[in-house]
Amino acid sequence: MTFEIKNICCIGAGYVGGPTMSVIADKCPNININVVDKSPERIALWNSSNLELLPIYEPGLDKIIARCRDKNLTFSTKIKEKISAADMIFISVNTPTKTKGIGAGQASDLKWVEACAREVALSAKGHTIVVEKSTLPVKTAEVIKTILEASQPNSNELKKTFDVLSNPEFLAEGSAISDLESPDRVLIGGESNDAIIALSNIYRNWVPTEKILHTNIWSSELSKLTANAFLAQRISSINSISALCESTGADIREVARAIGLDSRIGSKFLNCGPGFGGSCFKKDILNLVYLSRYYNLNEVADFWESVVKLNNWHQHRLSELIIQNLFKTVCGKKICILGFAFKANTNDTRETAAIKICKDLLEEGAFLCINDPKVSKEQIHNDLGLESLKSLTNYSKRDDFFNFEGQWIFEDSIYKAIENSDAVVILTEWDEYKKINWSKVAKIMRKPSWIFDARSILESKEIISHGLLFWRIGDGSLNV
Ligand code: UDX
Ligand code: ADP
Predict the structure, then answer these.
(1) According to a count of CB atoms within 10 Å of the terminal CB, is the N or C end of the chain lower?
(2) Is 283 a catalytic residue?
(3) What share of the chain is helix, strand, coil (3-state, %, to 5)?
């Protein structure tokens, strides 16, 4: 039996649910899509008439919202009502790493997924296909299925039936819309052929059939964890070599180019940086580690755990290096942090290297002036667990900052953020930082003036020609 899908409900209006449902709505005008979330604040932002206020920044998203919202795409908190009306439900809620109990620090906390499954079990009507979209540990579909099957209505109501599918999302933030519009592949795992076909038919509206892969449900769940683990492993690999380059006089850009031209290795994901961030990489690897240990595969667990360990070490290495170069103390010095998001083109700061690096510098007594084109002051406050200084009269005119030890302030203007600082640290590769006027910078910084480029986006000749001291990640020619 083929199911025709007319009404979709997506639970979770976050970085995955929001863009994914927007693209499905755009490509399938005949399907009604209702995105629901338990957070009224988040939903209000999705519904704001000023599209600059959407809760997530993603290039191209505002245009799709303008086209589809209130036509075949709605955002609301009517969770029960929209579940009842749906033929297909996507679960796109967050699954952070557990902070306490069994598996703390490694296993994913499935409490939100479980809450959704219970809500679906209660409110769904007739036959419903439930699709897990959140990144989940292997065998989560089984948990969802057990909860759904345990729920049956009173004898006089229609029996409820469910199919559970795994359809992991491979979009990367910052390029979510193009990733969704032209995916490398769409993966659908499940047992029911009819349900798989129903979901495939939705994607076939814009994705070529040969890119839609069908697997068993566990292969699908494990593929998502493995894809992220492989990608993260490449970044830890290149970052580890960047440290070696700095010590030996090699240049990581040359090494990355040379190895990337080997078609077996390929050139993508070879940019060194301040360490990977984002909501997925660390969480997924730790899930893989937890799973491997559960099955007594300790060598496998150790192998993947080392990718995360290297990333942690690398982030602290950068803060230590900044402190070393500033005569081993940053106390009473102003350090300008350019970029707080975990990568360019997103306002997401989950697991961003900037959190660890800023905390290290604050701990050492630095005064930080932070700039990011899309991350808000409030978000940075949450992430650092420290309020920003309210207002500072004439702080930029000072030449020491001992009164502001271990404090920070947000600054919208790049040049104001840089003014009178001892060091500028680039942590996110935003385009605006590639266009900075270094001659102007040289005139407004305190001397000696250091520029630390942790994203390798700047050219040394230009910076050095203005009398600035320059460190670039992985560039040993500057440091030996
Ligand atoms: C990742 C996966 O790419 C995506 O398929 C999955 O669905 C979710 O997790 P995302 O976290 O959004 O996506 O961003 P990604 O582009 O993978 O970057 C992750 C981190 O690695 C960022 O901090 C980024 O700056 C860093 N990175 C990436 C590098 O340091 N170097 C690179 O070459 C690439
Ligand atoms: P992701 O990156 O996986 O999309 P986000 O944290 O950006 O993660 O989004 C997850 C969303 O799911 C949040 O807006 C949160 O409020 C919502 N959410 C979590 N649990 C539930 C639930 N039980 N019912 C409805 N919404 C939920």
Answers:
(1) N
(2) no
(3) 45, 15, 40
- CA 221 – CA 138 distance, rounded (Å): 5
Q: What distances in angstroms separate CA 334 from CA 326, 352, 401, one per listed residue? A: 11, 21, 6
352's CB contacts (< 8 A; 6+ apart) are 277, 278, 340, 341, 342, 383, 427, 428
> CA 229 to CA 396: how far, in whole Å?
44
pLDDT along the chain (480 residues), means of 10: 90 97 98 98 97 96 97 98 97 87 82 91 94 83 86 70 95 97 97 96 98 95 95 98 96 98 98 97 94 96 98 97 96 96 97 98 97 97 93 64 92 96 98 98 97 97 96 84
Query: Which protein residue's CA is at the shortest distance from atom 6 of ligand 2?
Result: 94
Query: Where are any strands of DSSP class E within 183-294?
Result: 186-190, 212-215
Separation of alpha carbons 175 and 54, rounded Å: 16
Rounded distance, CA 381 to CA 379, Å?
Answer: 5
224 part of the active site: yes
**Which ligand 2 atom is at minimum distance from the Cα of 135?**
3
Question: 58, 119, 132, 169: which one is catalytic?
Answer: 169
State pLDDT tens for residues 366-411.
999 999 999 999 999 999 999 998 766 666 566 678 889 999 999 9
Q: Tens digits of per-residue pLDDT, 12-56?
A: 999 999 999 999 999 999 999 999 999 999 999 999 999 999 999
The number of the ligand nearest the C-alpha atom of 82 reads 2
pTM of the predicted protein model: 0.94
Cα(54) to ligand 2 centroid in Å equals 15
* Catalytic-residue membership of 58: no
For residue 429, the 8-state DSSP code is -
3-state secondary structure 148-182: HHHCCCCCCCCCCEEEEEECCCCCCCCCHHHHHHC
